[in-house]
Every structure is written in C-alpha cells, then in structure tokens.
Amino acid sequence: MTRIPHETSGEPNPLRALTLDRLRCRTSMKWRAYPDDVLPLWVAEMDVLPAEPVVRAVTDALALGDTGYPAGTGYAEALAAFAEKRWGWDGPAVERTAIVPDVMLGVVEMLKLVTGPGDPVVVNSPVYPPFFQFVEHMDRQVVEAPLGADLRIDLDVLEETFQRVTEGGRAAAFLLCSPHNPTGTVHTAAELAAVADLADRHGVRVVIDEIHAPITAAGVDFVPYLSVSGGENGLSLMSASKAWNLAGLKAALAIAGSGSAADLARMPEEVSHGPSHLGIIAHSAALREGTDWLDSLRAGLDDNRRLLADLLAEHLPAVTHRPAEATYLAWLDCSSLGLGDDPAEVFLRRGRVALNSGIPFGTGGAGHVRLNLATSPELIEEGVRRMAAALD
Fold it and tell me: Is the dihedral of CA 48, 188, 312, 310 positive or negative?
C-alpha cells in the first residue's frame, strides 16, 4: 500500500473551540452523567463542534425534508475513497460492504455469522468493556488473551488461546480491537499478518473493530486488517463516528474481505434498517470533505498527548503511561499511588474528576484509569490538577 503523508491543515484546532460553560449546556451522556461540580474526562465523546461539511450536509438534508430511510452505497463509496487516499488501501470494495446501525451492533451481527451460541470469542484484555458486555449478552463465551507487558498483542499467548478454544473442532472467533482501546496501540502489518496466520491455522474467524482507525498520531500508520496477507477472511467494522464525533448520528459499515463475502451476504436484511439516514449523510460528508478538520484534530491531539505527559511528570510522577499511537484516549497506570484497584472512584470522590475505571476493561485493568484527551488543554490541566488534589 502507498500512503499519503500526514497533511497539515489550515483549520483551527477543533479542541479549542468551546468553553466549559458552553460544554455544560450539552445534554449528551458525557455532560449529564455526573453533577455539575464534576469535570468529565471519561466516555468517548469529543469536546468539539462538528466539521463544517457535516453541518452543511445535515442542514441541507433537513431543509429538504430528506429524513426518510437510507438507500444507496454513498457511505461505502466515501469510505473507499478515504481509505485509498489515507491508507493507500483499495480493499473496501463497495459490493462487499453492508450498512449496520453502529460498530458494536455490527460486531454482534458479524459474530452471529461465524459462531453459534456458547462458542468462545477471544479478546485482548484490557479492552473496550462492551466487548465483554455485548458478547456475553449474545450467549457467547468471552476468553481473554491478555496483551503483553508492552501493551501489544502477545502472539504466544494468542496462539495458546486459539489452540485451547478450538480443541475438538469447536468454532471460535477473535474480536480484534484495531487500533486498540484503551491503550491506543496501533498494530503493525507484521503483527496483523501473524494474527491472520494463527487464525487460519487454528480455524478462528477474525472480526475487527476499526472505529478509531482515522485517529492516529503523527508519523504512525494505521494498517487495515483486511489489507494484510491472510486477512481476506476477516470481517471489519468501520465508522466515521469516533473520528468526527458523530456517535449521536448512528451509522457504520461492515466490510468483508475477499474470502468472507459469502458470510456477509448471509447477514439478515433487516439489520440494514437500523442505521440513520441522517447519520449516513453525516458520515459520508465527513469522509469526503472533513479531512482538513480531521487533520487539525489530530494535530491538537498530538499537542494534548505531549501536554498530558508533561503534567503527569510534574504533578503525578508515580502515574505511568505510554503516549497512545492512536485514539484520543490515555491509559494511565495508577497502581503505585496506593488507591487500590479502582483509582477512578477515588479521583471522582476526592477530586471531582470523572475518568473511566480500568476494572471493566478486564485483566490488566485494575489500578488503571482511562482519560479522554479530546478536550481543551485547559480542561486537561484542570483534570490533572484535580487528580493530584485527590491524593492530598
């Protein structure tokens, strides 16, 4: 694949557009789950205004009364064009895509295609908590293959897990998070090819959540799983939701590799009724016309990652973390602070700052918190100040 270099945009940093007073007018989960004296740096919502092309596309649709049911392949075509320019990948063939309501509901539908009730689904913990919740709710068994100490996929552990869960010819799946949430790890082409080889040798089907793919740090290349050797049997879920802050405008795409098109074709037709037509319009506009905004966001997140590292070194030197290669999340190891398995509870109670507890992320999550960096530098500074004050 041939990728274009990271382009510098002339747009202003979207993370500096809103004041705290304006943010507290919002009615979404991030700003309504806690009392007003709590600073929310938790759930994956960004403190930004939408990209102008997205606003224009949705406003034009509303003005036209274009609020019916979705139709056509415009979203898939927009993603294909974005993937070719951004990642040098021509893999998301429109005929091998299907619209789904969102990434996690798409994950459920893909797992239903390749596993049955009671079958094991392998995950790399610590990992996004809905991986556990959704998989268990659909009557599959979650099996952890924890990341290594370097927060990367431990291929030896993964192979042992694949071998164990497929004993006796049992069907199994691997639910891969790429880039990884909460660590922000970007899997390399070599790592993904090794995963594909292991999956092929053990008969494990791979379903990939790639929702954070557009949000990489400068100098870091995202590699689509379906683009690597052996990845053609995978089933990927992608969306503009995270990168352009469109969680409230539901839409995502399921993408089959060349070897899994027949699986995707078996997806029930009614699943495609779930995405919002306005969501598809918004996501398509983001992918086609919102790249300058995205690159300004990425530059702002790079600044925030450096800021967080400096603030932790000054105010919370016992907290350790590896600056993320992707996502707008920071995974902080607070185990040396003496706050027990759930430091997020202490930071909330004593410091009035809301972070995600590491415990629901599975093995490796105790003693950790996840911090949302997609906000203004001023609020990151205030958040770290409150965390430090919680230790007094």
Answer: negative
pTM of the prediction? Answer: 0.95
- Per-residue pLDDT reduced to its tens digit, 349-375: 999 999 999 999 999 999 999 999 999
User: What is the residue-averaged pLDDT of the chain?
Assistant: 96
CA atoms of 122 and 140, how far apart (whole Å): 10
| DSSP of 86-124 | HH------GGGEEEESSHHHHHHHHHHHH--TT-EEEE-
pLDDT at 10: 72
Cis amide linkage into residue 126, ω under 30° from 0: yes
Check: CB of residue 41 under 8 Å from CB of residue 354.
yes
Burial 212-251 (b: 16+ CB within 10 A, else e): bbbbbbeeebbbbbbbbebbbbbbbbbbbbbbbbbbebbb
Q: How many CB atoms lie within 10 A of CB 29?
A: 14
Tokens representing 129 are 């908590």
pLDDT in tens, 221-248: 999 999 999 999 999 999 999 999 999 9
State the average pLDDT over residues 141-169: 97
- The percentage of the chain sitting over the pLDDT mark of 70, rounded to a whole number, equals 98
DSSP 390: T
User: Do residues 16 and 376 lie in contact, with contact meaning Cβ atoms separated by under 8 Å?
Assistant: yes
- DSSP at 336: G
Identify whether the C-beta of residue 116 lies closer than 8 Å to the C-beta of residue 124.
no
- 341 φ/ψ sector (left φ>0, alpha ψ -120 to 50, else beta): alpha
The DSSP-derived string for 262-300 is HHHHTS-GGGGGSS-HHHHHHHHHHHHH-HHHHHHHHHH
Lowest mean pLDDT among 4-8, 37-41, 189-193: 4-8
- 298: Cα within 13 Å, side-chain hemisphere: 24
DSSP assignment of 4-43: PPPPPP-S--GGGS--HHHHTT--SHHHHSS-TTSEE--S
> Distance between CA 183 and CA 174 in Å, rounded?
18
